[in-house]
Design brief:
Blueprint: E1 4-13, E2 16-26, E3 30-35, H1 42-49, E4 56-61, E5 76-79, H2 91-101, H3 107-115, H4 131-143, E6 149-153, H5 161-176, E7 180-184, H6 188-194, E8 197-202, E9 205-211, H7 212-217, E10 223-227, H8 231-240, E11 244-248, E12 251-255, H9 259-269, E13 275-279, H10 283-291, H11 293-296
Parallel strand pairs: 3-7, 3-8, 5-6, 6-7
Antiparallel strand pairs: 1-2, 1-4, 8-9, 10-12, 10-13, 11-12
Length: 303
């Protein structure tokens, strides 16, 4: 098991900062999701972690940077781009070449081909592969050395719904074995059920580094649904706490305060409550709040 420690990562292209003083830790036994809008610096961060781009800071894997491992694929598996292989080399031979360079037995090649569902096309040339098949081959390469750490950039790109489910189960199983899994994705609904922890960046700056549940709870999109016949005395008590109330009749929707605060306020003013339900924000809504995308890229109306 290995801890990933990214310390003060930074990268500037010309005068434009792409990554700004990013520090975070990925613990073994968990899937950490890496989120951010397009152009936020996710791919650059991953390249910095693996020493593929020059920049500031350092990343260690079990205390060592990537370039100090003699056979890195036996420690860290990575997938940073779609179809990372020679288009005319047969799929199995591509993996055999990587295995030989890292002193991995050839038998492992057939094992990972079976794991990713490519055994039947092992003799095929990747140039004829679909994007999804190419992603599976890239994942096979990442798994080849049975590494303790995985760094995967958008591995679900090109996968069909069945493939996405397969990938989710695979990554969860690997994390359950004690491996460290760091994965980026634009599929927020999928990330909500895959990840345990999140690193969220925007314009290269850290926006959040916490559990998925804590990130969602912090969103202002969460609401409380309330049914009360005594709203005449209860609503003023809620607004006094900083809550905003909307709705008609006895059914109300409140933002800005928790169900616990509403319950206490109802007790204090002796108001009856027939129903009180907390509606958490989705990960997508929390992400839009954190990154400011809801307003920054808001489209205009029809002319």
């Amino acid at each position: 098991m290995a801890v990933i420690e990214a310390q003060h990562l930074g990268k500037t292209f010309g005068s434009k900062p792409a990554v700004v003083d990013l520090s975070f830790v990925v613990q073994p036994g968990s899937v950490t999701g890496f989120l951010g809008p397009n152009g936020s610096g996710k791919s650059t961060t991953m390249r910095l972690m693996l020493g593929l781009d020059r920049g500031e800071g350092r990343t260690t894997f079990d205390g060592k940077p990537f370039d100090e491992f003699k056979h890195p694929m036996r420690h860290i598996g990575s997938l940073l781009e779609a179809k990372p292989f020679h288009p005319t080399r047969k799929a199995r031979n591509h993996l055999r070449m990587l295995a030989a360079a890292n002193q991995i037995p050839t038998s492992r090649v057939d094992e990972v081909l079976e794991m990713v569902g490519l055994t039947s096309v092992a003799g095929g040339k990747p140039r004829k592969f679909s994007l999804g098949m190419g992603q599976r081959l890239g994942i096979a390469a990442a798994l080849l050395g049975d590494p303790h750490t995985l760094i995967l950039d958008e591995p679900s790109n090109g996968l069909d719904p069945q493939g996405i489910t397969w990938l989710r189960n695979l990554l969860k199983d690997l994390a359950a074995e004690g491996k460290s899994v760091f994965v980026s994705s634009h599929l927020l609904q999928e990330m909500a059920v895959l990840a345990d922890e999140l690193v969220v960046i925007g314009r290269g700056v850290m926006l959040a580094n916490c559990k998925v549940s804590d990130f969602v709870k912090a969103s202002t999109r969460g609401t409380v649904s309330l049914t009360s016949p005594d709203q005449g005395i209860l609503v003023p008590a809620i607004t006094a706490l900083g809550g905003s109330v909307t709705g008609e009749g006895t059914e109300l929707t409140i933002v800005g305060v928790t169900a616990e605060q509403i319950g206490d306020a109802a007790r204090d003013v002796q108001a009856r409550i027939h129903q009180l339900v907390t509606n958490e924000a989705t990960l997508e809504e929390a992400f839009l709040d954190a990154t400011g995308l809801a307003e920054e890229f808001k489209g205009g109306g029809a002319p």
